[in-house]
Design brief:
This protein is α+β, with helices and mostly antiparallel strands. 44% of the residues lie in helices and 17% in strands. It contains 20 helices and 16 strands. A five-stranded antiparallel sheet has the order 4-5-6-7-8. A three-stranded antiparallel sheet has the order 3-2-9. Strand 7 and strand 8 form a beta hairpin. Helix 17 crosses helix 19. The termini are far apart.
Length: 529
């Protein structure tokens, strides 16, 4: 599957194909385009909702705080990792058929200067080929991550390691420093549910087995297109799996077409002559006088292009049926496509990646649970502060989450459905008509019919604007003029309705100040006090 994404359809290079065998070698970008389109149908930033643990108002505030913190956590993670972590996991699911996350508390492992500046929680994707997990019917029993690194790096991490082929005292040479060794980060649960950890380096313990405060095993493996089979290979299937035989055939067919066109445009020309020692080069624009006994022959094969094109169309139709319709990649300028039909195709495309998206959402929910557990276990009273961007309004906010805000409640719901631009004019028109007739409320219209993220206080904003557009409009406009022109606003409003409003407000302010002074003691009493 990964070789298909890398567009490795042939074992030889294009140069060898044309120079050695005289044939064209055409590789279509179909697998790469499919993965790119599928990745666009999975949002790169998760939309996280946290339910309240009870019906109390305090719980609603705490759940909203956890929700804002988790959303900001992923945004900050992308900035800190300098990559799109969710998009990386989506690529793994689409191409390799599975994905893997690691989430750890790393504050104490950072340099002191960075401990207060960097996010103390590390979230990253791991290579699924190097991750193993054992999950029972109820929970994950153990998980490990295997990787290779240089001996020098191992000695920096674990100075106590002694490589068997070097003796106990000899230092590493430059060549030996670059040699790679295998490390295994192993996590498991004991009978009481506590999480243990050890790191193994070439059959030695780089880190001795130790009980940790982790709420769960911090290595999580998930799948792409899943199948309930015992074969480990087919538990997670790539979106490219249906193209396993079809795409190489498409490339071979396209190569045959290219070769046919090559010989059709550039036929084989031979010269028959009795003269010896003369080289004749046939080329465009060249001139050569033939003798009475000389003759030219042109071999031009009769290529059945319509038949080849019909077979290629059949192959392309099979590929679209198993993946995405061609219209989803965009239309040529001037082509007209019905908006309703495009919406149907877009919904079908979203359904094609629904299983991959659902599995990835479930994995991210578990990552969020572990993140909340890490804050409870390691953050202390000061908690963990992150900053993020409000999805609807785009405003930047800071959120600090403490152990008291979590209270052992880790539930969350993750959505990775992106905002796909569609022709929704008919749907929105119908919504507006139902609101006008009193069949539908404005709140339901905003929540169910508008395919875009709105600010949390959108209803409050609408009601405020409606009030300011009514009887409060002149007062709001006067306040705007006073703020915009603090020195000349009195001259600007002279002779207008705003002057009367200003006089009324000044009179009301004077009466209010006078009423406040009536109950005050005389000045001499105030001075004595």
């Amino acid at each position: 599957w990964e070789s298909m994404w890398m567009l490795k359809a042939f074992d030889r290079s294009v140069k060898d194909a044309i120079n050695v065998d005289g044939v064209e070698q055409v590789t279509t970008p179909t697998p790469y385009n499919i993965v790119q389109l599928a990745g666009r149908l999975i949002a790169s930033l998760p939309r996280i909702e946290v339910p309240s643990s009870s019906a109390e108002d305090d719980d609603d505030e705490a759940s909203e705080k956890r929700e804002r913190w988790l959303n900001a956590l992923w945004e900050r993670t992308n900035r800190q990792q300098r990559t799109d972590v969710v998009a990386n996991a989506a690529w793994q699911s689409l191409v390799r058929g599975r994905h893997a996350f690691e989430i750890k508390w790393v504050k104490e492992e950072l340099p002191k200067r960075l401990q207060e500046k960097r996010l103390p929680i590390l979230i990253r994707t791991l290579d699924p080929f190097n991750v193993g997990t054992r999950s029972g019917a109820y929970y994950t029993e153990y998980a490990f991550h295997k990787w290779e690194t240089s001996r020098l790096q191992v000695k920096q991490w674990f100075p106590q390691i002694r490589f068997k082929d070097l003796g106990r005292r000899r230092r590493l040479s430059v060549k030996e420093e670059d040699e790679e060794v295998t490390c295994i980060d192993f996590w498991w649960l004991d009978d009481e549910g506590a999480v243990w950890n050890a790191i193994i380096v070439e059959e030695q313990f780089g880190k001795q087995p130790a009980k940790t405060e982790y709420p769960d095993i911090p290595i999580i493996e998930g799948y792409g297109d899943t199948a309930p089979l015992g074969n480990e290979l087919y538990k997670g299937v790539s979106i490219l799996h249906p193209l396993k035989e079809m795409w190489p055939y498409e490339c071979r067919l396209a190569s045959q077409l290219g070769t046919g066109m090559l010989y059709n445009y550039l036929p084989i020309i031979t010269l028959k002559s009795n003269r010896v020692g003369e080289d004749v080069e046939i080329k465009p624009g060249g001139f050569y006088r033939l003798g009475m006994e000389d003759s030219l022959e042109m071999v031009q094969p009769n290529v059945n292009m319509p038949l080849a094109q019909s077979v290629l169309g059949m192959v392309d139709a099979a590929i679209q049926t198993s993946t995405f319709p061609g219209v989803m990649y965009g239309q040529q300028p001037g082509q007209v496509q019905a908006g309703y039909a495009v919406n149907i195709l877009a919904n079908q495309a979203m359904g094609r990646v629904a299983q991959v998206r659902n599995n990835l959402e479930a994995t991210i929910e578990l990552v969020n649970e572990i993140a909340l557990g890490l804050v409870e276990a390691f953050a202390g009273k000061e908690g963990v502060q992150v900053w993020g961007t409000e999805e609807g309004s785009g405003a930047i906010y800071h959120e600090t989450l403490t152990k008291a805000d979590i209270g052992g409640y880790y539930e969350n719901n993750v959505t990775l459905i992106p905002e796909v631009v569609q022709d929704e004019a008919l749907k929105i028109t119908l919504m507006m008509q139902m609101i006008d007739k009193g069949i539908l409320s404005r709140e339901t219209g905003r929540d169910k019919y508008i395919n875009m993220a709105l600010p949390r206080d959108e209803a409050l904003r609408v009601e405020t604007e409606m009030a300011l557009m009514g009887e409060l409009a002149p007062k709001a406009q006067l306040k705007a003029l006073q703020k915009r022109f603090p020195d000349t606003w009195e001259v600007l409003i002279a002779g207008t309705q705003y002057e009367q409003i200003a006089q009324q407000e000044a009179q009301m302010q004077a009466e209010k100040e006078g009423a406040g002074q009536e109950g005050m003691p005389p000045p001499e009493v105030l001075a004595a006090i």
